[in-house]
Amino acid sequence: MRLTEKDLLGIRDLTVDEINLVLDTAESFIEVSTREIKKVPTLRGKTIINLFLEASTRTRTSFEIAGKRLSADTINISSATSSIVKGETLIDTARNLEAMNPDIIVIRHSAAGAPHILARIMRQPIINAGDGAHEHPTQALLDLMTIRAKKGRVSGLRVAIVGDIAHSRVARSNIYGLIKMGAHVTVAGPATMMPRYIDRMGVAVSYRLEEAIRDADIIMMLRIQTERQHENLFPSLREYANYFCLNRENIRLAKDDVLVMHPGPINRGVEIAPDIADGPYSVILDQVTNGVAVRMALLYLLTGGK
Amino acid sequence: MGQKRTVMDAEGIDRSLNRIAYEILEKNKGVEELILVGIRTGGVFLAERLQKKITKMEGVEMPLGILDITLYRDDLVSTNRKPKLGKTEIPFSLDNKKVVLVDDVLFTGRTIRAAMDALIDFGRPKLIQLAVLIDRGHRELPIRADFVGKDLPSSIWEAVSVNLTEKNGRDEVVIEESEH
């Protein structure tokens, strides 16, 4: 069993067996991070370039830790300190990096499809760490891993994804993954943040938080991208919070053993009340822990190419 | 596959494990500071059986760890065809402990090299000993076992499999010529 593609560009390209392979492998990697010496020699002598051309702390740190725990050499490039600011194109940057013989490239970019361009022109495996509003496959995999670990399965669960669905790559990758694994997905958010034809992905659509989370096994709250406020998608953060903030009142509508997830960074009091984010239903920090294991699994499975 | 020969039956395996259990106790003068670590997958079942036998003899249950050596292999590099990674479970420090590594077949010695590297990441054992059910020769590294169930001189083209009830439904050691 192995991943059939050279790259990980999106959950859309993965089969159920491939998703399970990544999750099984990631579960075995959890143990490495609990050791006193958190390092195995598996990728000794391999070079991983983290090309982060859009802001990130969690994902970049997670990839860097994953690479280091596998003994790879990890190099981080961010847009502010790269030649992108001097006007170099992405393709030229890629060709120059390739000339230095790295073994794997992790890329985050604000433009959807940027990782796909790299995958076409570079021999090295490319991992998409988030491209525009398109996909964020490693986030969906760590979410699936967290659900599977806590619930023992994904199939048959009722999942509500709430927030700015239109601009969320996390939502898109999770929809692909959850549907493939047999979950029932409802997306909810203000009409201005709901993409047209989203139902064609196989999800139910709601415009009310209460409706979406009723009897849910899993609630995924998305970050409200406050930087989008000038687009007039909602009148004010307070109004958004009035209608779409998950709090101790409305969470009662969900199942008693509901899991609350959030990809971070959270806006406390906007999409999620602080006592819910820190409360007993929350698995937000488990998601972060599992993220390192999922990324170790992908680096392990993808190195070497086809 | 060519001809198949059974070189050890269930009784033979059990007798060998009894002897190994006694030898472990004799050599270490009891179970104090002693830890068993089985190498996935065959070694784990053998380590569990040794643990049971020693518990019966000494009335003390020795700690048992499980080690997957995949991440320490020396032949992982060139493709994305990767061996399935199993869980390692060594939830205790190995500092100053006497570790008995357990595997089913000792062949090139490369698995044991990987296992020793892995163990040392869990602390500094006082010593590491090796127990195997079958030693089939053809070493590629300077490694030898402390406790051996059966020496089985084999051709490099033969396949030696240790079948155990826990995973194959019956206990036997078979040797067969592989096509090449």
3D architecture notes:
The complex is a heterodimer of chains A (306) and B (180). Chain A has 306 residues and is α/β, with parallel strands linked by helices. Chain A has helices at residues 16-29, 58-69, 90-98, 114-121, 137-151, 169-180, 209-213, 237-244, 274-277, 284-302; strands spanning 47-52, 73-78, 104-109, 126-131, 158-162, 184-188, 204-206, 218-221, 259-261. In chain A, the strands form 2 sheets. In chain A, strands 7-6-5-8-9 form a 5-stranded parallel β-sheet. In chain A, strands 2-1-3-4 form a 4-stranded parallel β-sheet, sandwiched between helices. The longest helix of chain A is centred in the C-terminal third of the chain and has 19 residues, at 284-302. The mean pLDDT of chain A is 94. Chain B is of the alpha/beta class. In chain B, strand 2, helix 2 (42-58) and strand 3 (64-67) form a beta-alpha-beta unit. In chain B, helix 1 (10-28) crosses helix 2 (42-58). The longest helix of chain B is centred in the N-terminal third of the chain and has 19 residues, at 10-28. Chain B is globular. Chain B starts with a strand and ends with a strand. The model of chain B has no long low-confidence stretch (mean pLDDT 93). Classes of the chains: A alpha/beta (306), B alpha/beta (180). At the A-B interface, helix 1 and helix 10 of A face loops of B.
List the main descriptive attributes of the protein structure presented here:
heterodimer, A: 306 residues, alpha/beta, 5-stranded parallel sheet, 4-stranded parallel sheet, 9 strands, B: 180 residues, 3-stranded antiparallel sheet, 8 strands, 28% strand
